[in-house]
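Quick one:
INPUT:
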């Protein structure tokens, strides 16, 4: 197996008395798409936030290409530039156009300016079918369009890894497909991705590996065929029966 791009070793995270992650070990290779599945409260979202260091871990370590990025006192700005994250809530600034939302972070964080930045942002809008909407404000866009803008905003920082936290959960069913198509395109382009998702069909179609989480641990992981067609663990079987009816 190739050397891991991202490695989680014994990651533990609690909120007060509530142990949310109880020793997560996971290796992610360059260009791999991993889908995290499991019931709400199983730890999927917290795991993504710990990878991006939005939540400090209590024990264990997170390694990015040989660097321990969970080390206390580490400057996190460079880490977060390398690992983008998109949430189910779009969090777009309502007083800015879609394009202005996308340009904000590269200008402030990367100190980029000028026509080259604008051209790169415009190319992202075109790439994901939103070039006719880039000058609109968020309230002029559908939920699916706003979520695609949120993805573009993260990609404008040129991350090496993308984390997606239930990004279709707040969308009407007819809008889910347009957001999943963005992920399909990123998959084709070789982006390294981790997704917490309830979209089982999508996970089965495109994931390299599927990890079933329950109670803060990865109960079972394998190829989509292994997990969806022949799960070995009783808890995985029970979960899939409940969601695949």
């Amino acid at each position: 197996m190739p050397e891991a791009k991202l490695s989680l070793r014994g990651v533990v995270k609690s909120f007060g008395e509530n142990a949310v992650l109880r020793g997560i070990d996971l290796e992610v290779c360059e260009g791999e798409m991993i889908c995290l599945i499991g019931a709400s409260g199983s730890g999927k979202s917290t795991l993504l936030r710990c990878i991006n260091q939005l939540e400090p871990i209590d024990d264990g370590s997170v390694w990015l290409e040989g660097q321990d990025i969970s080390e206390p006192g580490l400057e996190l700005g460079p880490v977060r530039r390398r690992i983008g994250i998109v949430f189910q809530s779009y969090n777009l600034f309502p007083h800015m156009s879609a394009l202005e939302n996308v340009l904000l972070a590269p200008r402030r964080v990367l100190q980029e300016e000028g026509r080259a930045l604008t051209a790169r942002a415009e190319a992202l809008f075109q790439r994901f079918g939103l070039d006719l909407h880039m000058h609109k404000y968020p309230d002029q866009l559908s939920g699916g369009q706003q979520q695609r803008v949120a993805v573009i905003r993260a990609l404008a920082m040129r991350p090496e890894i993308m984390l997606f936290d239930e990004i279709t959960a707040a969308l009407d069913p007819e809008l889910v497909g347009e957001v999943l198509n963005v992920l399909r395109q990123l998959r084709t382009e070789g982006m390294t991705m981790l997704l917490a998702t309830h979209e089982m069909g999508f996970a089965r179609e495109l994931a390299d590996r599927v990890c079933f989480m329950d109670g803060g641990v990865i109960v079972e992981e394998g190829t989509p065929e292994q997990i969806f067609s022949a799960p070995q663990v009783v808890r995985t079987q029970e979960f899939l029966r409940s969601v695949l009816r």
